[in-house]
Amino acid sequence: MITGKTAVAGVTGNPIHHSLSPILHNAWLAAAGIDGVYVGFDPGAYGFERLVNGFRGGAVRGINVTLPFKEEALRLADEATEAARRAGAANVLLFPPTGRVLADNTDGLGLLRAFEVQAPNWSADRGPVTVLGAGGAARGAVAALLLAGAPQVWVVNRTVQKAEAIARALGPKVKPLPLPHAVGALRDSTAVINATSAGVGPGGGLDLPLETTPDGCVVMDMFYKPVVTPFLEQARGLGRPIVDGLEMLIGQAAPSFEAFFGRWPPAEVDVRKLALEATGQ
Ligand code: ATR
User: Fold this and answer.
1) 93 pairs with which residues across the strands?
2) pLDDT for 204
3) Fewer CB in 10 Å around end: N or C, the chain?
């Protein structure tokens, strides 16, 4: 039941109405018996900055931020965690009673959690990892992989200058490569992560010689509509272990929930099943 004390959190982005986050968070709230609600906020014509300023002081506990506002979320915040600063983006904003805005980034934790769940034999410290793309999502992934102990991260991008900018920001373990030279990265990688906004694989926007990856190389796609993307289908066809973007979404949602509502979500709810049902899969 919604009461006068109900704690409110939510998610904003553009578009926002098809976000799966409310399904995850509200299922956890119900199972935990917390007087809280999690809704989608459409920034509409007034824009993201006004939405954030309107929440200062705690009318809303906090919000998740998705495309295209993650970089702006970090810029607007008064304080940021190291995870958010290194990622150059925030997917969590908190609104404490002080009126300040705090930025955090749990996408990196989500990525690593997805690997833990779906590729438990893989670990970041075992060898080089390839990240495809050099936008905000890619930079967050690179930061998380370095923190988890990856000895080297190849950043393969159509526009190599953007990969070089990530290397300047995150240090010498980051190796930029232009997309046509992807093989140079793929052949010694323990994992390949798609963080581009292009479809990857047959029928998608990028055609990548995934067969040049070593046996056992884990293939991950941050996209999750559908959960098994053409890129993951291609990887599966080659017998490579796969990790999907839905598991990453769930992985970033759990620490977000803790930040908003003060406790870790209850483990007994199968939010993956709920999300798959909601998307007709
Ligand atoms: P996000 O914040 O989600 O990372 P972004 O900053 O727009 O989004 O980055 C999109 C990434 O997908 C970029 O790395 C982009 O490559 P460029 O830097 O060369 O633009 C990559 N991308 C998008 N469409 C692509 C395509 N058709 N082929 C190759 N790369 C593509």
Assistant:
1) 63, 103
2) 64
3) N
